[in-house]
Design a protein that fits this description.
The complex is a heterotrimer. Chain B is 76% helix and 1% strand. Chain B has helices at residues 2-36, 41-45, 58-89, 93-108, 111-125, 132-156, 160-168, 173-201, 205-208, 231-240, 245-279; strands at 48-49, 54-55. The chains are: A mainly alpha, B mainly alpha, C alpha/beta.
Chain lengths: 307, 283, 281
């Protein structure tokens, strides 16, 4: 009897299939990474470190420097994060700490729906509304068009807002309600309770939320593609100058999503340069997701910093 | 002073919380208002004419549904396998942790990279050309973490005494899977699939190089060189170039159809999703 | 005219005599009545006990007294509660200040995941400015009052969750004492504790009543007997609505068994097995 059970434990179709499918998923990720490394090798050989630090990208002259696109990607994501973080965290504080349950659900439902809107629809709204608003709103800057890094950043901010908000709300809700009650019993106001009990204990979860949102912002393609302007080699004189923000630019994803990807396949070096962008993006985003997941899992006692 | 700070805090956070509500109402309102005019029986059942300016989007709807169906069939078995391995078979916490990390990383991979992967492997290396199959497989892999995580969460919330009762009857891991885990947790699979499909339905980046074209495709009959039309790619192309009013109307109409499809799927998953999130609270 | 002055005069007298008074207090959850016509008068510097079976509404009543009940959405309070003769539900009352004057100790010790020192100062730092140099002395005073100082004085920076449950409960008391409340509301503070910790808390309550007024919810009759000066018996035997069945000096109440529901409660209380079950809840 016992041996029968052991046999059943070791070899069943269900078990076998489950592990096979898991292996398949793991292999897929490994294959993607390996493929990107392999296919981009010529570009690294051709340009060396200059592939990352090079400021010019003229594929006809075989000049492949990705710095302008890396700059564009980070600027756009930074704008998105700077806008979405305070709003998302504030909204989560409101839904988790202040709002009665009856009203929580409609707000959370709205946020879930917002998360579901496809990026091409965001792009469409960006083209037809946001870029005009940016153009009109910044008249004093004398913009060439409404397609700017700023426009893409604002659009991205709306797109990552649900991520920031939902995960922050979850983090706040994980703080026991008894602690809020105790704080209120000591005569602390709602705001003080929200900050000292809720925020103080869930900042780790909120940081995770911001990391995951950043990962999403870095990799978003279609919406950014439609409003960023896709101007190559748009690097500012210095990294802290503002004007490039309101000029057209290029991000890693808008380059990958553009027509160059189709053109490049015939030419091994050009193709390698394109895949190299993908490799760079994959490394960064995977690193961020990994860090976010690790952070979310870690839980320490007594680490709540109190102002 | 404290009293006023409290008021200020509530006012500010309330405004923050109102913003997403206002935005979603704006998005749905604008698209319904502009696209509503284009909707007609003919629009939904006719094929594309004059580069999107005329005719309908029948084959776009069909193409998107074909892609979704394929994605569903690809992701469900793999996600089930992943969830069972994580939730039932793996006993080592460290290995489980690693698998979870892997799912998180996979979940974060930008969709355009799926497209590039598909372009290299399926379109060029396997020589399929543009094919609905590629898009379906890629979308299926993309929604994999969503489905698997929803299933895993459901397994985690399974009352321990069910598992113990089954184990007490001498059922092995795999027998427990079919007698307890699958019947009790199928809900998670459904929720996850709906969410994943909602996400996949609106994706443009993975399919634009690999499986979808703007015009000239109908229902595919094979795998090689058989692209489909799709809703998101239709919007993507029209949004970029044509600004003549008729195409504009059809553009908004297409956006409305896509939005209804995506939000419909999200809405179906909503109750279960809100429930899971509220469970994690302590009130 | 004459009558109304008379009433006010009598009220004025009472105000001096009672620190806390409820008048026709009712609590509703939606349309359902949870508590009906609660009239209590509580004299300062005593331990006032609220006894009764679980589910009768003792904790609800207690939470009305510092308006903590407002955190439970959907509960509605009618009637009046007077603190020193003034209604605590009047619009001029700042609810947060009110809760400073009526401190609260919960059934489960709720410590924040920060150091012992910061736990003690958690509330008080927001009510008055405490310079960093005075943190230890301010905490010492409260901890001494809660008879916890000797046990924790060498490890004030340790995480509060490392303390035993009994110590945690006294830490919560110290935290409440630090904001210097006149009244301390205690919601079955010992029901989660072992006998030794229970004894420590009970001794503490005995000492505290010289400086504060204590309102103690308990369903442990022995505890009520040992600690309370007066008790009110809360019962929901009639139609599921909680009301005060009788109140008065503790000896008089616990020895008068005229009231059938009180008799039930007292008898079950004398059965050690049942007491144990109720307490373990």
């Amino acid at each position: 009897m016992l041996s029968l059970r052991n046999a059943a434990r070791h070899w069943t179709w269900t078990r076998l299939a489950s592990f096979a499918f898991t292996l398949l998923a793991v292999a897929f990720l490994g294959l993607m990474l390996g493929l990107f490394v392999w296919q981009s090798l010529p570009a690294w050989k051709h340009a060396g470190l200059g592939y990352i630090t090079g400021k010019t990208w003229y594929f006809r002259q075989q000049e492949f420097g990705a710095l302008a696109m890396i700059y564009g990607t980070f600027v756009v994501s930074a704008v998105a994060l700077l806008l979405a973080a305070p709003v998302g965290v504030g909204a989560a504080l409101f839904t988790a700490e202040v709002l009665p349950n009856r009203w929580r659900l409609p707000v959370k439902a709205a946020v879930e729906l917002l998360a579901g809107v496809p990026s091409v629809v965001y792009g469409l709204l960006g083209i037809l509304f946001l870029r005009n608003w940016v153009y009109d709103g910044l008249e004093s800057f004398d913009l060439l068009s409404g397609d700017t890094l700023l426009t893409a950043g604002i659009l991205l901010a709306v797109m990552i807002l649900p991520t920031v908000m939902t995960l922050s709300d979850d983090a706040l809700r994980a703080v026991p309600a008894t602690q809020r009650r105790a704080a209120r019993g000591l005569g602390l106001t709602r705001a003080e309770t929200a900050i000292l009990v809720g925020f103080a204990q869930s900042w780790r979860g909120m940081l995770t939320a911001l990391l995951l949102a950043l990962g999403r912002a870095l990799g978003e393609t279609i919406a950014v593609f439609l409003v960023v302007g896709r101007r190559d080699n748009a690097l500012p004189e210095s990294f802290y100058s503002i004007p490039p923000l309101v000029e057209a630019g290029q991000t890693l994803t808008s380059k990958l999503g553009g027509s160059e990807t189709n053109i490049a396949y015939g030419d091994p070096l050009h193709w390698a340069a394109i895949v190299g962008l993908a490799l760079f993006l994959l490394s960064i985003v995977a690193g961020i997701s990994w860090a976010g997941a690790r952070l979310m899992r870690r839980k320490e006692e007594c680490d709540a910093p109190l102002a | 002073m404290r009293h006023w700070l409290d008021r200020l805090f509530i006012l500010c956070t309330a405004l923050c919380a109102a913003l997403p509500v206002v935005i979603i109402v704006f998005i749905i309102g604008v698209i319904a208002w502009r696209g509503g005019g284009a909707l007609s029986w003919e629009f939904l059942t006719d094929q594309i004419r004059s580069a999107g300016a005329d005719g309908g989007i029948f084959y776009n709807i069909a193409g998107t549904l074909i892609l979704l169906m394929t994605a569903f069939l690809v992701s469900v078995p793999i996600a089930t396998g992943l969830a069972l391995v994580h939730g039932v078979y793996l006993k080592n916490e460290r290995t489980k942790e690693r698998l979870w990390l892997l799912l998180s990383v996979l979940n974060g991979v930008p969709s355009i990279l799926f497209g590039l992967f598909g372009l290299i492997v399926f379109v060029k290396y396997l020589g399929w050309g543009k094919s609905w199959m590629t898009g379906g497989v890629l979308l299926g892999l993309m929604m994999l973490p969503t489905v698997a995580v929803a299933f895993i969460e459901q397994i985690k919330s399974l009352p321990r005494h069910y598992i113990e009762a089954a184990a007490g009857l001498g059922l092995s891991d795999s027998q427990r899977v079919w007698s307890v885990v699958m019947p009790q947790c199928a809900g998670g699979l459904v929720t996850g699939s709906l969410l994943g499909l909602a996400r996949a339905a609106g994706e443009t980046a993975p399919i634009m190089f690999t499986s979808t074209i703007f015009a000239g495709a109908t229902i595919p009959s094979g795998v090689k060189e058989s692209p489909v039309l799709s809703l998101p790619y239709h919007i993507f192309i029209l949004a970029q170039d044509s600004f003549d009013p008729a195409a504009g109307t059809n553009l908004w109409g297409t956006a409305l159809v896509l939005l209804v499809l995506v939000l419909g799927l999200s809405l179906l998953a909503l109750p279960a999703r809100l429930h899971i999130h509220e469970e994690s609270g302590n009130d | 005219m004459i009558e109304s002055t008379l009433v006010e005069k009598i009220d004025g007298d009472k105000a001096g005599q009672y620190i806390l008074e409820t008048r026709d207090l009712c609590v509703f959850a939606g349309n359902r009545k949870l508590l009906q016509d609660v009239n209590l008068r509580i004299v300062p510097h005593q331990v006032f006990g609220l006894i009764g079976p679980s589910g009768a509404g003792k904790s609800t009543l207690l939470r009305c007294l510092n308006r903590l009940i407002e955190l439970d959405h959907g509960l509605r309070v009618e009637g009046e509660i007077l603190l020193h003769g003034r209604s605590i539900y009047s619009s001029q009352v700042n609810v947060d200040h009110l809760r400073v004057r009526l401190g609260m100790l919960f059934q489960q010790a709720v410590v924040f995941p920060v150091s012992i020192l910061k736990n003690v100062l958690f509330g008080v730092r927001h009510h008055r400015a405490v310079p960093r140099a005075e943190w230890t002395s301010a905490a010492e005073q409260a901890l001494r009052e809660a008879t916890l100082w000797d046990e924790v004085k060498d490890r004030l920076q340790d995480c509060a969750s490392k303390l035993s449950l009994g110590q945690q409960q006294r830490l919560c008391l110290a935290r409440t004492l630090a904001v210097n409340p006149e009244v301390i509301l205690m919601d079955e503070p010992t029901s989660a504790l072992d006998p030794k910790s229970t004894q420590a808390i009970e001794e503490l309550i005995g000492q505290l009543k010289t400086t504060r007024t204590i309102i103690l919810v308990t369903h442990h009759l022995g505890q009520a007997h040992r600690l309370c000066d007066e008790v009110a018996f809360v019962s929901n035997q009639s139609g599921g609505i909680g009301r005060i069945a009788c109140s008065g000096p503790v000896a008089a109440i616990l020895e008068s068994t005229d009231l059938p529901e009180l008799k039930d409660f007292l008898c079950s209380g004398k059965d050690p097995v049942v007491t144990c079950c109720v307490d373990g809840e």
